[in-house]
């Protein structure tokens, strides 16, 4: 029977080296959050390649190559998406969406790597507190935000990029694996989020029988709006309306914010903060 390859022992770093590793990881996380996937050309991006190399170098210096910790976090360096599966199936690769999804996963892994280094730092210096067992830790809401959208890709990209700049991970349904499930099963599978943003955009037209057609929200958007209102509660759902669109009477009590202009960013920031999330208002005002 083939024996699994042995792992190298974890590096024993000095306090200064651990602190430097934590700071370098923070720089990578910040660079990933502000990276604009729209700057890629056919999936290529020299800055993203540089970030990949930086992440590999930091993880190797902080944990040692071929260690269990290194293998646990090295997936953070998988940033690019070549679109091979789409090409084989005859579809045009969606580099932006796939890369944004990879960046969100990478940010989560790098934050976990930071926490591991902070625990190592506490072992070196007991005066550094990384958590107190004397009191129950506060529940931190998930930084995953489900983005419900229709056909307005521009609105979807604006919101997703804004959320990433604030440190959230946008979950967009069509970017997730189907795994043989129905649409509602897929929503349930990926609906473990701390907040939902619903984009009410005029993608369809309709009217009562004999009436005049008016712009309407797509039916799947209304379905998912109702689902997340029930699952998360009204205080964890923010509806953003773009353009002129009819809101069904069943949802007349839902508070929505206009997405025409830039005030929606402050409004969404306030809703996220009210739901228990920490918001860097300097980043809100800069975007």
List the helices and strands and how they pair.
Blueprint: H1 15-34, H2 46-63, H3 68-73, H4 84-88, H5 95-124, E1 144-148, H6 153-165, E2 169-171, H7 183-190, E3 195-200, E4 204-206, E5 214-216, H8 219-232, E6 237-241, E7 256-258, H9 263-274, H10 281-286
Helix pairs in contact: 1-2, 1-5
Features:
alpha/beta; two-stranded antiparallel ribbon
Description:
This protein is an alpha/beta fold and 287 residues long. The protein folds into two domains: 15-124; 144-286, Rossmann fold. It is 46% helix and 10% strand. The protein has ten helices and seven strands. It has helices at residues 15-34, 46-63, 68-73, 84-88, 95-124, 153-165, 183-190, 219-232, 263-274, 281-286, and strands at residues 144-148, 169-171, 195-200, 204-206, 214-216, 237-241, 256-258.
Please name the fourth-level CATH homologous superfamily of the largest domain. Answer: Toll/interleukin-1 receptor homology (TIR) domain
Radius of gyration: 22 Å
Number of helices: 10
Largest sheet: 5 strands, parallel
CATH domain topology of the largest domain: Rossmann fold
What is the number of beta strands?
A: 7
- Structural category: alpha/beta
Distance between the termini: 57 Å
| Helix percentage | 40-55%
Query: What string, H for helix and E for strand, traces the elements in order?
Result: HHHHHEHEHEEEHEEHH
Number of domains: 2
- Which descriptor suits the 3D outline? elongated
- Across the major sheet, the strand order is 2-1-3-6-7
CATH-level-2 architecture of the largest domain: 3-Layer(aba) Sandwich
CATH level 1 class label of the largest domain: Alpha Beta
The stretches of 5 or more residues where confidence is low (pLDDT under 50) are 84-88, 131-138
Mean pLDDT: 81
Sheet-strand content, in percent, reads: 5-15%
